[in-house]
Each structure stands twice: as structure tokens, then as C-alpha cells.
């Protein structure tokens, strides 16, 4: 493990999702300890997207943005909200020059699949319909997220393709949670890794799926056809249970003719980019911004 990251391990709360209420509080407390992001040059606005039910969003608008990112927060489908995502959405908007639309989707287990996906897809449709108001080109809309949010982003891309929905130009997938089966080497062997481990992933999927069967819209790795999807950037962490399913998904996208940029970050663990003082974390965040800027400028 990167020594700069290892020094912070005692500060992380237990990797446990058995009590969702406590897990949410721990996650919110952890996010609140981050230094406040620089909001210079950004107009930040809370809105509500009409849906059934309505979906809260927070919109980050830089000057003269060309495209937008529908951004889905991490948290194992159970944790996270617009406030925990605020530091990352702010930084991503500033680094990329994109309008970032952060989605406050419904959380499991109170709202299992497909609630979060329905919320995310409703925001994508709203973004496309309101492109002129947002000051963006309707063909320059990307979807992305971290962890569970990355899995949701991949599912949104699949649904948009299958239902001839709003055209997406890019997928920005950071350590995405893609496969409920947990059959890969990293899922079987990473039982005590920091922040995210096998048992926490198991609990995450149990809460998210509820009694519903796993479909490709819930677990995108189950999709048999990945052709026709938008180009993707996939970032993986070396000491993350999701690592191998993410790499496999990237390879399958490539084999289906989808352009993919795949970066495996050595010495990192799931969510370790939150340790902003670490040099590797700074590089990870800078790269996400640069990749999105380039994708929306094409």
C-alpha cells in the first residue's frame, strides 16, 4: 500500500453496512472532515427534477461549459447524498469545465432496485431536455460515478442504449460496483481491505437487490451485449474487491468495439482518493477532471 495512504487507515470507520443508519452517519462524518473545496468560478444551485417521486439535484456550473456530467455518488447503494458528494462534484466541475449535475438518488434498503436507477435515468432525461437552459450541447452529456455510483452510471448507459434514450457521449467509472456474483479473485480474497471488503460488498448487494433478481440494469457485469455503449474511462484501485470485475468489464467493452481508457492505480484502496494530501490521490482526481474535459471537448 502507498505509505501516504496507509498512515490514514486508523481514521477510517469500520467497513460495515449491516446497520445502514450508523453507516450513513459515519460516511457523512468522514465527508465533513474533508477540507472545503474551492468554489471560485462556479455557480451552485439546488434543484428538483420532476419525476415519480421528484429527485433532488445539485448543479455546478462553470463559465462557458460545453457539456455536462450526470454524477452519481458512491456509498454502496446505502450511503451518501448531495452533501457527501459536494467536495468531489465541486472539484470535478472545476477541473473539467463541465456542468456537473449531482443526483440525490433514493437509497437502499428502504428503496431497493430499481429506485436509484429510475432516479438517475430521470435526471439524465431532464438534463437532455434542458440542455439549452444549462448552456450545454445536447450531444455532450456524460454519465459517471464512484463505487455504487459507477455501477449506476454503467446501468444508465445500458438503459439509454436499450431504450433509445438520450445519447450519451461518455462513461466516467471510478471503481464501479458492477457484479453481485462476487466470483472474481479480488472479490474472493479481499476480506480485510480498508473501507471496502468482501463482506461489505455482500451487504451492499443484499440491501440494493432486496428480493429482486439481479439483471444487467442492477449489475451491469451481467449484460451479455456491451456493443453500442459510449466510450468509457474505468479507474480501479489495487486493493479493492471491485478491481477484477472492473478490469474484466473494461476488456469486454473493448472486445465489443467500445473505446476504453483503463487505469489501475497501484498501492491504492477503495475510496482512498479521499485522502487529499496523498500525491497519488491528487493525481487520481486531476486525471478524472482531465479525462472528462477531453471527452466533452471532442
Automatic annotation (TrEMBL):
Gene Ontology molecular function, alphabetical: carboxylesterase activity
Top enzyme category: hydrolase
Pfam families per the UniProt record, alphabetical: Abhydrolase_3 (PF07859)
EC numbers, comma separated: 3.1.1.1
Keyword annotations from UniProtKB, A to Z: Hydrolase
Claim: Translocase is one of the keywords in the record: no
Coiled coil: none
Membrane-spanning residues: none
Domain Alpha/beta hydrolase fold-3, first and last residues per copy: 69-272
Name of this chain's protein: Carboxylesterase NlhH
